[in-house]
Amino acid sequence: MKYLIFILVVIGLQGCTTPAVVSKADADMTQRAMAFEVEKDIAKVYFVNGKILENMFNMKHQYPSDFIVDGKTIGSKNKEDALVFKVKPGKYDFSWNVRSTDPIDKNANPQIMSVILQGGEILVLQGDYSLGGAAMFGLIGGMVSPPKTWLKRAERSEIQGKTIVMPQNCDVKVCLK
């Protein structure tokens, strides 16, 4: 009986995430992204899912994600995607958040990563997720200590096997074609 309840809770929680409608890259753009090609006067940023920080099994989270540049959501991705975009060299504040209707996830506190990008630079980021107080104390714990999202630099190998997607609503002042 305990296993049945556990399975029902897990299935119920999966319904809280909101899948992203993504803009898949064409074959040429995918090939260039997977080869990590970038022009010398621009920088390229990749974003993939990271780990659940309180997890003793070292698991990656499966949450769909919204990626934020300088306080504006530029695009979204699902667990199997890698969001890729090009920017002018300069200083940027990056963060991400879970796409969810769950009140705990919606209350997440995204940590901002400030980065100065140089021309020709490739930055691979992974989004790690901390459940905060919800990890130990459920809904009440999540209200007292909300979840957090972090960005950290990742290896290029994290892109392998991912579907390359482009930002859906990135301002031309930020993203380059």
Description:
With 177 residues, the chain is α+β, with helices and mostly antiparallel strands. It has helices spanning 2-14, 27-34, 103-106, 134-144, and strands at residues 23-24, 43-52, 65-69, 72-77, 81-87, 90-98, 109-110, 113-117, 122-130, 148-153, 163-166, 175-176. Strands 1, 2, 5, 7, 9, 10, 11 and 12 form an eight-stranded mixed beta sheet that branches. A four-stranded antiparallel beta sheet has the order 4-3-6-8, with no helix packed on it. A hairpin with a 2-residue loop joins strand 3 (65-69) and strand 4. Mean pLDDT is 84; it is low at 6-15.
Keywords:
alpha+beta, 8-stranded mixed sheet, 4-stranded antiparallel sheet
Q: Estimate nothing, just give the exact number of structural domains.
A: 1
Q: What's the story with the biggest beta sheet?
A: 8 strands, mixed
Radius of gyration: 17 Å
Helix content: 10-25%
Structural class: alpha+beta
What's the total count of β strands? Answer: 12
Number of helices: 4
Give the averaged pLDDT, no decimals.
Answer: 84
Q: How much of the sequence is in beta strands?
A: 35-45%
Q: In sequence order, what are the helices and strands, one letter per element? A: HEHEEEEEHEEEHEEE
Distance between the termini: 54 Å
Question: What is the global morphology?
Answer: globular
In oligomeric terms, what are we looking at? Answer: single chain
Flag low-confidence runs: 6-15
